[in-house]
Amino acid sequence: MTAAERHPGHPVPSPEHRTPRPEARPPGHFTPRPVPRPMSPPPPPRPVRVTVPEPAAASRGPYHRPGLRLDREKLLAARLHAVKVRPYLADALFALHVVEDGTVPTMAVDAYWRCYVSPGFVDRMPVEELAGVWVHEVSHLLRDHHGRGERYAREHEAYGPGERLRRNIAADFEINDDIYGDGLPLPRGVVLPSLLRLPTGLLMEEYLRTSSMSGLAADLAWLDCGGGADGQDRPWELGPEGAHGLTRQQRDAVRFRVAEGIKGRPGDAPEGWRRWAEEAFHPPQPWRQLLGAAVRSAATAPGAGEDHSYRRPSRRSASLPGVVLPSLRRTPPRVCVVIDTSGSVSDAELGGALLEVAAISRAVGGRRDLVSVISCDAAAGIAVPLCRAEGIELVGGGGTDLTSGFARALRSKPRPDVIVALTDGQTPWPSAQPPCRTVVGLFPRPAGAADENDPDYVPDTPPSWARVVTIG
What is the DSSP string of 31-44? Predict the structure, then answer.
């Protein structure tokens, strides 16, 4: 067998390429091995430049500049300017803790009163305009846009980046009309309701309900004031466990001090801030629900709308042979609404009163024929059924004496089961409790409101026998 046959597939070297076998050496013969030459040392390693990758472009703000440090002196000088021109916001502005972050588009806040700042944005903004941004961001926190944005998203199931941007735009609409001017110049590109031909002075929720804001979404994709503006957390935010965040009690304390400062010097703050200060810790009651509940409670109380009827004899008649007893039947309740039309009640309040009359009719089952309206200033008009509400004319404009309105309502045939008085409260009240349920819808007035013709006049509070609901 040949070598090729023993190792198939492997080439067999030719005889001239075969390594000769060493010749046989005599015993005891020693052949020294060659001494190896010393190896040269290996070359030193080449230096390798380690490059830290930059964040993705989508995660960098439009003012991102690598290596730029935050100019804190300029930033804090802008805050001092904001305090100078808006002194009623000083407590809130100094409560913000600055966090430097180049991934933030401009400036942003979270719900824990941290202010995240882009160094490039601060570098490019003039101090006066930067002061306006300070006021803008702290306004989000004072108006509780974080909590309100969360509630809106939960109630309307409005989630996602598009909805987040809508809430941010609506929140900016609410606050920007009260920020600029009087020392804070209007910056270029500021977001105002006029961009969508919307009225000023509305709340964030009202702007969200009245406009889709789709026309601004493409141009304002960069807009991001942080989770403190819309209730949705951001990747750069430190969260509730992060450093320098305010607790709920601390946040409420800041809001309280700002509200008290605005109420103490009301001439220094715009109307929007004064309204916020009045309602910040005295939120308006859901008065429509309360008024409807009060009317329903009065209309369904024992004795209201109840009468004896022989149409259906009482089941107790079976125990008295030959005697027919009437049964107690509940009829639909009748409601008479007395509207205060004196000169101290505004036209807007009178218009709101007529709207509440329609709501009252729904509260008693929608029977408009069972609801009547009396206009009353110093004298009472006639009772007009609500089924002719389109022709109701509220006559008045003089003094106020609702006792005549109550007397007119009780003389109505059939007599009402419930009397609802809509008034500002600057009126005498009946000396005796009417023989029916009474609900008073009270238009709010500032404390100590008095008759201009009589400085010593102090209006009586509604009587204890009336269920009182503050309207507005």
Answer: -PPPPPPPPPPPPP
Computed over every residue of the chain, the mean pLDDT equals: 78
Contact 107, 118 (CB under 8 A): yes
Type of residue found at 441: G
* Residue 438 host element (H or E): strand 437-442
- Encode burial over 414-451: b for 16+ CB neighbours within 10 A, e otherwise: eebbbbbbbbbbbbebbeeebebbbbbbbbeeeeeeee
pLDDT in tens, 276-303: 888 777 655 565 666 667 676 765 655 5
58 contacts: CB under 8 Å, gap ≥ 6: none
DSSP 192-222: -GGGGTPPSS--HHHHHHH---HHHHTTTTT
Angle at 407 between CA 374 and CA 308, to 5 degrees: 95
Whether residue 460 contacts residue 445, with contact meaning beta carbons closer than 8 Å, is answered with no
pTM above the 0.85 mark?
no
C-alpha distances in angstroms, 409 versus 87, 94, 178?
53, 58, 46
Task: Tell me how long the chain is.
Answer: 472
| Beta bridge partners of residue 63, listed in sequence order | none
- Specify the pLDDT at position 237: 93
Spell out the residues 6+ positions from residue 269 whose beta carbon is closer than 8 angstroms to its own: 88, 262, 277
- What pLDDT shows up at residue 10? 44
**Phi, psi (rounded to 5 degrees) for 440:** -115, 120
* End-to-end CA separation in angstroms for the chain: 115
Residues with Cβ within 8 Å of 364's Cβ and at least 6 positions away in sequence, in order, are: 295, 296, 299, 332, 333, 335, 370, 371, 418
Q: What pairs with residue 100 in β-bridges?
A: 117
| DSSP structure class, residue 69 | P
Q: Given strand 371-376, what is the order of strands in its sheet?
A: 384-385, 371-376, 335-340, 418-423, 437-442, 467-470
Residue 217: both structure tokens together = 């979404």
